[in-house]
Amino acid sequence: KILHRYLEEQPDLRTWLGNQECCTILQARALMCDLRSRYSTLDEEQLKMKTSWKDDNSWYRRHRQSNASAAENTEPVSLEERKKLAKLRIQALREQRLSRA
Question: In this predicted model, what pLDDT tens digit does every residue of 56-81 receive, in sequence order?
Answer without folding.
Answer: 656 565 555 555 555 555 666 788 88
